[in-house]
């Protein structure tokens, strides 16, 4: 276990990425184990409706890193990458993205980690979201504020 600067008696907050969080104090600490005396446990249900961000594969890893961070902070429940006309390499759901999502959750206090997925093409995303409300980002045409879209169905934002 790698814990920097932690000492017995220090307050900690733990979460599992599935809506559960615990507050407590470090009771004991060794090289391989940390024991925490739990003082409070809580559960936060997932937000409704569930939000999915469908994003075309980007050619720069740093842009994908930022997308994962910001989508997590904004409360997206699932991030699906799909192949577009100008997509180059297939993104791999790396441990790096999961770590970035964990860091973003810690920063904003969110208790749910987003699901990270790679779909084939946009058609695959559309087929799998057929029963969902789909919203596409577009610079042209009439615009409708997101606040007017009230739906109980899951929502997929396509970028």
Q: Can you give keywords for this protein?
A:
single chain; 159 residues; alpha/beta; Alpha/beta knot; 2 domains; five-stranded parallel β-sheet; three-stranded antiparallel β-sheet; elongated
Cα Rg: 19 Å
Distance between the termini: 40 Å
Count of domains: 2
| CATH architecture identity of the largest domain | 3-Layer(aba) Sandwich
**Helix coverage percent:** 10-25%
Number of helices: 3
Secondary structure tally: strands: 8
Segments where pLDDT lies below 50 for 5+ residues?
A: none
Topology:
Blueprint: E1 11-15, E2 20-29, E3 34-43, E4 51-56, H1 61-74, E5 78-83, H2 95-108, E6 115-121, H3 122-128, E7 133-136, E8 155-158
Parallel strand pairs: 4-5, 4-8, 5-6, 7-8
Antiparallel strand pairs: 1-2, 2-3
Describe this structure in words.
This protein has 2 domains: 11-43, no CATH class; 51-158, SPOUT methyltransferase, trefoil knot domain (Alpha/beta knot, 3-Layer(aba) Sandwich). The strands form 2 sheets. A 5-stranded parallel beta sheet has the order 6-5-4-8-7, covered by helices on one side. Strands 1-2-3 form a 3-stranded antiparallel beta sheet, with no helix packed on it. Helix 1 (61-74) links the parallel strand 4 and strand 5 (78-83). It is elongated, with a radius of gyration of 19 Å. The chain has helices at 61-74, 95-108, 122-128; strands at 11-15, 20-29, 34-43, 51-56, 78-83, 115-121, 133-136, 155-158. By secondary structure, the chain is an alpha/beta fold.
């Amino acid at each position: 276990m790698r814990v920097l600067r932690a000492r017995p008696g220090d307050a900690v907050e733990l979460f599992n990425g599935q809506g559960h969080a615990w507050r407590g104090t470090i009771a004991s600490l060794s090289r391989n184990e940390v024991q925490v005396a739990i003082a409070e446990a809580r559960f936060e249900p997932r937000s409704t409706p569930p939000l999915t961000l469908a994003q075309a594969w980007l050619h720069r890893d740093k842009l994908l890193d930022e997308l994962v961070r910001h989508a997590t902070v904004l409360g997206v429940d699932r991030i699906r990458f799909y192949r577009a006309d100008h997509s180059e390499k297939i993104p791999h759901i790396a441990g790096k993205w999961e770590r970035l999502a964990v860091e973003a959750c810690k920063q904003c206090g969110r208790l749910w980690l987003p699901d990270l997925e790679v779909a084939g093409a946009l058609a695959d995303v559309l087929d799998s979201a057929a029963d969902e409300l789909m919203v596409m980002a577009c610079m042209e045409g009439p615009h409708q504020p997101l606040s007017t879209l009230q739906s109980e169905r899951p929502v997929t934002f396509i970028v």
